[in-house]
Amino acid sequence: MEIATKKEDSAVVVSVTGRIDAVTAPEFEKELLALMAGGDYTLVLNLTSLEYISSAGLRSILSAAKQLKAKDGKMLFAGLQGPVKDVFKISGFGSLFKIFETEEEALRQI
Known about the structure:
Shape: globular
Helix content: 40-55%
CATH architecture: 2-Layer Sandwich
Number of helices: 5
Radius of gyration: 12 Å
Strand content: 25-35%
Number of domains: 1
Number of strands: 6
CATH topology: Transcription Regulator spoIIAA
CATH superfamily: STAS domain
């Protein structure tokens, strides 16, 4: 798993490549919490290059989202593909979070 972040206006775009599974989920969550600790409360997760996400990955997203909500922050998703898109639908994450086709669309909603 690789994580790249970039600042876009009032949001931070977090691009994830590879897999978020039981091995990589703690590192992923730590990265999100570090962004929040630095004062970034609007996160756009660009998952265009994410190939796989496990239940551990979903838990790390939920955990970070709860902490963001407590700080009046928000988490938006962009670029879900294939199996990752399916997992979001099946798990109900599609109704919990705002999901956009592209990073640009998500950034326009902030």
